[in-house]
Amino acid sequence: MKTKFMLLVLSLSTTYVSAATVNKKFLNALHQVESSGRLGAIVGDGGKALGPLQIHRNYFVDAAQFDHSLGNDYNRVTDLAFAQRVVNAYLNRYAATAVAENNFEVLARVHNGGPSGFKNRATVRYWAKVETNLKLKTS
């Protein structure tokens, strides 16, 4: 029994270790779209989102289930570097292939609309905003 448990723990821990890192230009574009590049305890979406990347509590919980090093203090999402770690974990949990392939459309739409957000027509407008910011960054 101990051996099976240890193998499970090992396989779960290596899942995150092998996770790709979300592209920094993409994260910068999200930051612009979500808070116009502002920093700190920005409250949005009617009080449901927090920080420079406008992270909802459920999004944070999902990310922390993937990357346990995030802990359980949701209020830390007010720090940009920590918020970026949360986004990295969330997107690796739900869109790992898109992270590895730098498929920014899928990443933006999952960030905005949840695990199946890339299928939701309502996230197309959000993607257009992110795409515009990506193009501004490369010009």
Task: Quickly describe the structure.
It is built from seven helices and three strands, in the order ααβββααααα.
Q: What number is the mean pLDDT?
A: 88
Strand order of the largest sheet: 1-2-3
Outline: globular
Beta content:
under 5%
By CATH, the topology is Lysozyme
- Main beta sheet strand tally, sense and closure: 3 strands, antiparallel
Look at the helices and sheets and give the structural class.
mainly alpha
What is the helix tally?
Answer: 7
Query: What is the number of beta strands?
Result: 3
Tally of separate domains? 1
Give the topology, please.
Layout (H helix, E strand, L loop, with lengths): L1 H16 L6 H12 L7 E2 L4 E2 L4 E2 H10 L13 H15 L1 H6 L2 H10 L10 H15 L1
Antiparallel strand pairs: 1-2, 2-3
Helix pairs in contact: 2-7, 3-4, 6-7
